[in-house]
Structures are given as structure tokens and as C-alpha cells.
Specification:
With about 300 residues, the protein is α/β, with parallel strands linked by helices. It contains ten helices and 16 strands. Strand 13 and strand 14 form a beta hairpin. The chain starts with 18 loop residues before the first helix and ends with a strand.
Length: about 300
């Protein structure tokens, strides 16, 4: 990954809509920013995760959908990769994103575990007694109901936490608050009138760091891998694979089934595998290939850090 120290104006998913992307073509290599696609708007938790992995100077291509995130990350001339949420410690797996990953030409080069902290944001000078409405994504509102129930505010659901923050900033709202990240507060010059208003503190989202397979490099000291496989679905076929994984001394930290499109209730399996050495991992992969009809390695990388 290149070392960048300049910002491109983010906020768009295409070079035509984001002139900064087009201007990168003539920019010296050492001054180009890390440019990654994310789902959501500036100030979203996806951007927070991107900054933890790539650094604070990271610029983002904001996308409306996860499908667009994959599309932009696949454009190796227009971006350096993408960041995509894959599971949450409370809500569970984001199943459609496994399908997007399966169809893509992207590799997992890392991961970030981010504690989701929700905050009540207002324009400078606004007091709690001034608030009449609170705007945010439905999930964020649900996460904060214990706090919100103390007040008689009108709760308004929106498509994105960071977009809610952006709107109250743009409209200079004096009676509307937003629930969003501290990054959104910083970007839109809002005050955090009430921090950490979420009910459950142990709420982490796991984000995958993705890069085009042609750009992905070998990760030094890798100790985790994500693979997808399916068996012939005969009796005991899955158990045989899992036994080989266990016998190889590998920790299976996640196993997620997913329907195979167009099949008659047949399933493939996404697996996260933790190991001590690459030799150990590839030896187990060799034994798995003999027991499966298809096996794809999504990425070999280092276990992600937890950020709060």
C-alpha cells in the first residue's frame, strides 16, 4: 500500500462526480492519498474503520450500497480498495455481503473490529431543552432507546447516521439533533451534547479491508484466513472437513452457511481460520481440497485489532 499524505474531496462514488479522483492521475506517487470505497457518507463508521486501518489521511469514495463499494474497489485505477462491514456482535452476519464477496475479484487484506459508540450531536449552542426531534438510522435509534426514552423527542428514521449529522449542520437546525459518530461531529463542526448514549457497550462491528486481487500483496506474519467451500452434501461430508481443520490445529473462529444460487437447497460455507504459521494453514487447505467440490481463499491476513 502506498504512503499518501494529501486529501481528495470525498463524497462521491464515481470519478465523474468526484473531480479529485480524476486529478489523481497526474499526481506524484508520494502525494496520492489512500482512496478507498465505503458504504455511507463522510463521518460514517465505515470511514472510522478505514482510518484505523489506513491512517487518518485516508480519503473515501462514498457509496450508497455495498454493491457499489465492491464495484469501486474493483476499479484498481480509481481506488486502492474498499471497506465493507461483514458482521456485528449483536445483529450477526450481513449475509448479502458474503455473496458480494464471493462474486468479486477482491481479496481480504485485513480486518478491523470497531466498537460502535453512538453520540447525540447538535449545532453549537443548542441545549437539551431546545431539542424537539432526533434523526438517525433506524439501527442507531434502536441502539439508543433506553437513553431516548427519557425525553419526549420525535424520533425520525433516516438512511444514514452521518447523513443525519450533515443535514443538521447544513440547515443550521436549532431544534434537531442527530445520532452519529464523533468523526461526524468533527467533520460537520457539531457539539457532542451527550456522548455514548447507546444501551449496550459491547457492540462491535467487524469490517473487512478489500483490495483487487492484482494489487493484493503477501501479508507478513499472517495468522488468519477466510475461505469459502462446499462439499458434495453426502452424509458426513461437512463433518469430515471440520475434523481435518481441527486435526490440523487450526481454530475455526467462524463458520457461516450460505445458499448456493440456483441450487436445490445446497449450501456453501464461509470459514474464518486462525493459525500459527502459513505452512500449517496451507497443509490443511490441501487436505480440505480433497474433501470439497470447490474451495476459494478470500484472503490470508493478520487478525484485526479491536478499537473503541
Amino acid at each position: 500500500m502506498r504512503n499518501y499524505n494529501n486529501n481528495v474531496s470525498p463524497g462521491s462514488a464515481t470519478a465523474e462526480e468526484n473531480p479529485g479522483m480524476a486529478n489523481m492521475e497526474g499526481m506524484p506517487e508520494q502525494y496520492r492519498p489512500v482512496l478507498v470505497s465505503i458504504q455511507g457518507y463522510e463521518g460514517s463508521f465505515h470511514q472510522v474503520a478505514a482510518q484505523h486501518f489506513f491512517g487518518n489521511k485516508t480519503s473515501v469514495i462514498c457509496c450508497a450500497t455495498f454493491g457499489e463499494v465492491i464495484k469501486q474497489a474493483t476499479n484498481k485505477k480509481g481506488s486502492d480498495g474498499g471497506v465493507m462491514a461483514i458482521e456485528n456482535s449483536i445483529a450477526g452476519s450481513i449475509l448479502p455481503n458474503y455473496n458480494l464477496l464471493q462474486k468479486s475479484k477482491l481479496k481480504i487484506i485485513g480486518e478491523v473490529y470497531l466498537q460502535i459508540k453512538q453520540n447525540l450531536l447538535v449545532n453549537p449552542g443548542v441545549q437539551l431543552e431546545d431539542i424537539k426531534e432526533v434523526h438517525s438510522h433506524p439501527m442507531a435509534i434502536q441502539q439508543c432507546l433506553e437513553y431516548l426514552d427519557r425525553y419526549s423527542w420525535k424520533l425520525v428514521e433516516t438512511e444514514d447516521t452521518a447523513l443525519s449529522a450533515k443535514h443538521i449542520y447544513q440547515h443550521k437546525s436549532r431544534h434537531i439533533a442527530a445520532i452519529a459518530s464523533t468523526l461526524a461531529a468533527s467533520l460537520y463542526k457539531l457539539d457532542v451534547i451527550a456522548p455514548d448514549i447507546h444501551t449496550l457497550t459491547n457492540n462491535y462491528t467487524r469490517f473487512l479491508i478489500l483490495q483487487h486481487e492484482d494489487l493484493a500483496q503477501v501479508i507478513e506474519n499472517a495468522n488468519k484466513a477466510s475461505v469459502n467451500f462446499h462439499t458434495d452434501h453426502s452424509r458426513g461430508s461437512l463433518a469430515k472437513v471440520l475434523t481435518k481443520i481441527a486435526e490440523g490445529g487450526i481454530n475455526l473462529s467462524k463458520l457461516q452457511s450460505s445458499p448456493i444460487p440456483g441450487s436445490d437447497f445446497r449450501y456453501s460455507f464461509y470459514a474464518d481460520m486462525e493459525f500459527d504459521s502459513l505452512g500449517q494453514f496451507y497443509q490443511v487447505i490441501k487436505t480440505m481440497k480433497a474433501l470439497t467440490e470447490d474451495l476459494k481463499i478470500y484472503g490470508v491476513y493478520r487478525k484485526g485489532k479491536h478499537y473503541s
